[in-house]
Design brief:
single chain; Beta-galactosidase, Chain A, domain 5; TIM Barrel; Immunoglobulin-like
Length: 695
Amino acid sequence: MTILRYLLSLTITFFTATLLTATTLSAQPTTSYATLQDGRLSIGNELIQRTFDWNGGNLRTVRLTVKSTGKVFESSSLKPDFVPMDNAPEATDGTFTTEFVPEDNLHPSHLKAVVSFSLGSLQVRREYRIYDGVPAIACDTYLKGSFSGKLTTGAENAADRKNIEFAEDTKTRPEASLLDQLNFSGMHWRCKAVEFLDVTDWHNNLVTEKDFISYHKVSCKGNLLFARDGLDGSGYFFLKEAPCSFVQLSYGGADFITDYGHIMVTGLGLAPKDVTSDCWTQAYSCVTGVYPDGELSALTALRSYQKSIRRHIPGRDEMVMMNTWGDRSQDSKVNEKFCLEEIEKAARLGITLFQIDDGWQAGKSPNSAVAKGSFKNIWDNPDYWKPDPVKYPRGLAPIVERGRELGVQIGLWYNPSVQNDFEDWEKDADAILGLYRQYGIKIFKIDGLQIPSKKAEINLRRLFNKVMQHSRGEVVFNMDATAGRRAGYHYFNEYGNIFLENRYTDWGNYYPYWTLRNLWTLSKYVPAEKLQIEFLNKWRNISKYPSQDRFAPSNYGFDYLFAITMAAQPLAWMEASNLPEEAYSISSLIESYKEISADFHAGIILPVGEEPSGMSWTGFQSLTSESEGYMLVFREDNDRESCRVRTWFPEGAKVSFKPIAGLGGRFTAKVEAGSFVCFSLPSENSFALYKYILK
């Protein structure tokens, strides 16, 4: 099977019903299945199957099958996949049910297989999610009751082990608390662990990759681990659906433990005290995916799952947002007159969503420039989240109505009350729903989160779920990832998109290639269309940058700054009133972008070329089908008018490129060895957006 045919198979969303055994409890037209027969449970679809030994409900993986090639990974020993504590008793009271979950505004349709059992006083429920056309199976774990053993995470330090003189010396202590594990034979497992950092006010290097050969037991950090058989290139991945490693709850210092072909996922995201007898407590989730060979098939398998977590509806999820906080006036300007003027200019620029940040509300935050506010005891003031009656004497209605006339939605900033683990979550949910119902506001930037405990996480999820339920999934949350203990890139993904970073010309820490680099490195493992990426007013604060700094924002065209954001959701981090007249010349570019943005973002977007450095040839490729897609190429500040750019095309393919925006011309190329294609751009700091077709 070619890579492109494999890619096509991953884009299939629905199939006609297949013949399933009598124990499958779904009459819906789907290729996903879960069957229990003769002590063996099989879960899968047309691309993947994981077969388990029933073991009283505490499942033990027997084999993992890559259906696109017929490759079968056989377990070298049968161990329970889920190990919540040391010395766990045998499983009892095992039950198995399946349920077809229909599509709604948030989730695509899928099959859910539920396995429940008891380990002494601890009750366990494992819910497996299977989506048609996705070579991955997700598992959500819930616990109830109490632990009878010790919950531990992490791995022993290799420096504390003795030297190896006999086979017996290679044995190490078992790991007690595992979300999942696979134990396959073989001596040639190549692994890649990927660690992520958020808290982007303090971090500017957001992705770290660690490639290694699996040897004796070693631990590593990250939300992702790819394991590849060095003999034939086939493999699987584990995705740990949790916050970034350094902010996870009850973190033991590791996410994965490898020991030759034995790969374990550790760190449940809870402590024994978090589990009670009166309700189910959710641990972190774990996803297992398979791929036939090569990096593209691995990344495509991962992305096909990530695109299944939340339906991407263009009218709801596509946005070109303007938020005025980027010009650092904070709340000193926002009022009815200011917003009405900004909306007029935003519409002229091509903005589809105008978001009022901190300052619209009657309550004053600690970030206020006009008052010494606080986030403490927010609900002592029942009017805190109502429009400021001085700034907005007619409420938000005039702004919303003018925006509607100009085709600009209105969004708001919101900071849930964090005290006592979000105990006021329901009041916050009702306040958001009140604004949604009264004004039709559907976009809320969620800021100021601190999730220090499982209770806080549960209450925050209750807040989001209530808003989603009562708005029928129409509300979108922009989840701020700039500071605090928050959800990161792989948690709470069903609720909206991610506001990635604050960068300001006022402090001289906005560099276009930094922004491009952060998007480029993340886009390999995080859907680019789920990230909000900023572009700023390059004419402000020119003196804050050294005159000889070739990477200062003023050295770039305004169209180039916008182009950096096109693989993601563009964020105009500025006040329109501060823009010079020449800035509005990019309105035609923005209109061209909006015409193709939904199709561009529907594809699997991956980085191409060199890592952005300010002097590279770099960009993004969106694979929308077997034969079509988009290519966005940047020539940074270098003297190479042409460059061979590494892409995701198959070697030898003939590709025609039609320019949509930028300075590129129409051309046809044959893909060279190593998947290189030669691109040309006439000047430094220029770009080209192409639609491509494979011939």
